[in-house]
Amino acid sequence: MSCGEPHETDCSEVLDHLYEFLDSEMPEVDRDKFKQHFQECSPCLEKYGLEQAVKKLVKRCCGHDDVPTDLRSKVMGRIELIRSGQSVPEHDVTASPASPQES
């Protein structure tokens, strides 16, 4: 997605890190670059607004459910693998191993 105009921060970079922006999980200097981009780029601003609305809806509908501790630790472990650049198995690492009878 792009408006076709050149920007200091490329549209693909903004969209790749949109959830980090929404969750305030990026340095303030990067947040400022994104805010500037949204002022200049209406397609990215529209995408931001849509994702923000979806995030609020999910929080309202599902925000009261507790995440099982083991699931949280498995997901966090997978995130750490991705961040460290290690290969991540394509199978669902959060699923319990199949018993011999299921194979």
Automatic annotation (TrEMBL):
Domain Putative zinc-finger residue range list: 11-44
Coiled-coil parts of chain: none
Annotated region (Disordered), positions in chain: 82-103
A UniProt-annotated Pfam family: zf-HC2
Transmembrane segments: none
Name of this chain's protein: Mycothiol system anti-sigma-R factor
